[in-house]
Structure formats: C-alpha cells, structure tokens
Design a protein that fits this description.
Hyaluronidase domain-like; mainly alpha; 45% helix; 0% strand
C-alpha cells in the first residue's frame, strides 16, 4: 500500500479501548508523554505531513491514531469552517473504525452517519482526497455496521477495504 509519509514508523499496535493500554497516558503506551504537533496556519493539506500521516494511519488500520493526527489538523484549522468540517468527517470515519474494533455497531453507525454528513458537504478543492469511495464507505458503515465488527486481539487490524487516496 502506498504511504504518503514513509519516513514515519507505524506504531506497534493500534489502540482499541479495553484491548490495549492507552497510547498517551499509560507508561507502556506507544506514544506516552508525546504531544501533538503544533501546525502552522494556514494549513495546506496537500503538503501537511500531519494530514498525510493520518491517511497512512487510517489506510493501515490505525484508526484511533488517525483520529489523533487529524484532530491536530482540525484544531489548526480553527475547528470550524468548510475545511475543518471536512477533516472532522475523516475524524468521525476513523472513530467508526475504532468502534468496529470495539464491537460496538451502534457507535459505528452513529460515527459513520456523521462522517457521511460532513464529507457530503466537501469537494476535492476543500479536502484533497478522492471522496466518492470514502462517502460510499461511510454510507455502507451507516447501513451495515455489523458487517465491519472485528474484535480480534491482533495488534493491528485493517477492517476497511477502501483506502483514502489524495486527489
């Protein structure tokens, strides 16, 4: 699978509540005492390492970690407006992945529905990714959340066949 930020090493596990230690707050966590990067504003998503790192994480099954990477971007964008809302859609989609790993279909459907709503308002000039497949994934997650449940205790489990790619 293509990586956008290949020089960054993937963590040893993808955090799933109740399955692994918390990455930030537990001394054995893969990102213990690390702080999110401070991003310069304005943020140019096509070259923003944090945004691209979130794509790498999502595409390889690190849904919680992708959420964290994109949250830093969302905050740098001021947490409001078209571009921030589109990033929030990706955050919600990643949260649906965490809920699928937890075995929580109601959470999957709820996060996916919100992701679809936010991503439906975006176009590729706002969010430079191929949106059609991602919207279809969010719609399918909303309609069929049970189909994505995977509580296997593997360190990482990619559960979405659809990858995010840049436009």
């Amino acid at each position: 699978m293509h990586r956008y930020v290949p020089h960054l090493q993937l963590p040893p596990y993808s955090y799933v509540p109740g399955m692994h230690v918390h990455p930030l707050s537990h001394p054995d966590g893969h990102s213990y005492q690390m702080h999110p990067p401070k991003l310069a504003t304005p943020v140019e998503l096509r070259t923003c390492e944090c945004f691209l790192w979130g794509i790498d994480l999502f595409n390889t099954g690190y849904y919680w970690e992708a959420h964290e990477a994109w949250e830093a971007v969302w905050q740098a964008l001021g947490r409001g407006g078209e571009q921030a809302d589109a990033i929030k859609g990706l955050i919600k989609l990643a949260a649906a992945g965490v809920k699928a790993r937890e075995g929580a279909p109601i959470g999957v459907a709820r996060h996916a529905a919100r992701a679809l709503e936010l991503l439906s308002a975006a176009d590729e000039s706002i969010l430079p990714i191929h949106l059609l497949a991602i919207r279809q994934l969010a719609a399918d997650l909303t309609a069929h959340p049970d189909a994505y449940q995977n509580q296997e205790t593997a360190p990482v489990r990619r559960i979405f066949a659809v990858a995010i790619t840049t436009a």
